[in-house]
UniProtKB/TrEMBL annotation:
InterPro entries: ATP-grasp, ATP_grasp_subdomain_1, Dala_Dala_lig_C, PreATP-grasp_dom_sf. It comes from the Bacteria. Belongs to the D-alanine--D-alanine ligase family. Gene3D superfamilies: 3.40.50.20, ATP-grasp fold, A domain (3.30.1490.20), ATP-grasp fold, B domain (3.30.470.20). Residues 115-330 form the ATP-grasp domain. This is D-alanine--D-alanine ligase. SUPFAM superfamilies: Glutathione synthetase ATP-binding domain-like, PreATP-grasp domain. GO terms for molecular function: ATP binding; D-alanine-D-alanine ligase activity; metal ion binding. Keywords: ATP-binding, Cell wall biogenesis/degradation, Ligase, Nucleotide-binding. The keyword Lyase does not apply. GO terms for biological process: cell wall organization. The lineage of its organism: Bacteria, Candidatus Kueneniibacteriota. It comes from Candidatus Kuenenbacteria bacterium CG_4_9_14_3_um_filter_39_14.
Length: 341
């Protein structure tokens, strides 16, 4: 097949003190893009590289008659609904692509809208509030502590640091004001659940749940809060640190595994996902799985040493990186009634 690999490329390493990184945190590094390209080529496909910059539409328009499918890992470049940009362009040009509709991409990026849909479908999610300006933050309205404070529409733990866990109103107010200034978007105040944390990858059409991953925090430095914040994900979990926080498959009871799978599939369908996605889950005090958020497109770093969560689950399921890519492609072809070649 003739496939366009559509992406946004990161030019700097994760660094919370680098403003350029803040802009590119969700983008993929060149090694990831190269790894996906090589996997597609090893599967026998012809690959066209398309960077999803402000000329993206014109590039796709020029390639339109040469393409069978677009493998989309682009995050979009500006705006609250930026992950919907590339899918919207492709729909306008009638080009098939991997992943869900523009609407699903936009909803998945918005943590508050995701929660509204989960709640409407009877899927547990932690309590939350959305604050648009500091003056709206009133002590009497916050009925749950501790809380995690997050930008409402960012991915890759962007803006979610260890210091974002607030146990009192004064710290909550300080973090909220900082995030409102930094990201110029509403802030999500979310109840912090003290139970175990998991991440769940889904793949295919119909979707199947890959082996569940538990994220552990016992090896974090003393004083680091036990949740999947920026520091835990990008600074401590890297090949140089020798720190592996992931257990896959998770060591849990069949009953809990079935609950997690059930809620994950329901959330995947309720949010209109397709082909692939990854969900973050945390247990409440009663051990009930709560969906925190959904990630699509999820990160798929090729190097196993990098602990990229989606490929890790795929490998445990018996899928090589190349076959993981093939499964996503075949899923998209099935949805569009295309013959996978």
């Amino acid at each position: 097949m003739k496939i366009a690999l559509c992406y946004n490329v990161r030019h700097v390493k994760p660094d919370i003190n680098n403003p350029q990184y803040i802009l590119e945190a969700e983008f993929d590094e060149p090694q990831t893009i190269k790894g996906i390209q090589q996997a597609l080529e090893k599967l026998g496909h012809t690959v066209f590289l398309v960077e999803a910059d402000q000329n993206g539409y014109l590039k796709f328009k020029k390639l339109k008659n040469k393409l069978d499918l677009v493998f989309n890992i682009a995050e979009g470049i500006f705006g609250h609904d930026r992950e919907a940009q590339v899918p919207a362009m492709l729909e306008m040009l009638e080009l098939p692509y991997t992943g869900p509709s523009p609407l699903a991409y936009a909803l998945g990026l918005d943590k508050a809208k995701t929660k509204e849909i989960l709640l409407a479908n009877g899927i547990p999610t932690p309590r939350w509030q959305v604050i648009k300006q500091v003056k709206d933050l009133k002590k009497s309205l916050i009925g749950f502590f501790p809380v995690i404070v997050k930008p409402v529409g960012e991915g890759s733990s962007k803006g979610i640091h260890a210091a974002n866990l607030a146990h009192n109103f004064q710290k909550l107010k300080k973090i909220t004001a900082k995030l409102l200034r930094q990201f110029s978007q509403p802030v999500l105040i979310e109840e912090f659940l003290s139970g175990r944390e998991f991440t769940v990858a889904l793949i295919g059409q119909p979707p199947r749940v890959l082996p569940i991953i538990e994220i552990t925090f016992d090896k974090l430095p003393q004083g680091m809060p036990p949740f999947d914040h920026f520091e835990a994900k990008w600074l401590y979990d890297n090949p140089a640190s020798g720190f592996d926080p992931l257990i896959c498959p998770a060591r849990i009871t069949k009953r809990l595994a079935d609950q997690i799978k059930d809620y994950s599939l329901k959330a995947f369908n309720a949010l209109g996902m397709a082909d692939w996605a990854r969900l973050d889950i945390r247990l409440n005090l009663k051990g009930v799985p709560n969906i925190i958020e959904i990630n699509c497109p999820p990160g798929i770093i090729p190097d196993p040493k990098e602990n990229s969560r989606f490929p890790r689950a795929a490998r445990v399921a018996g899928l090589s990186y190349q076959n993981m890519i093939k499964t996503i492609l075949k899923s998209a072809c099935r949805r569009y009634h295309l013959n996978y070649k």
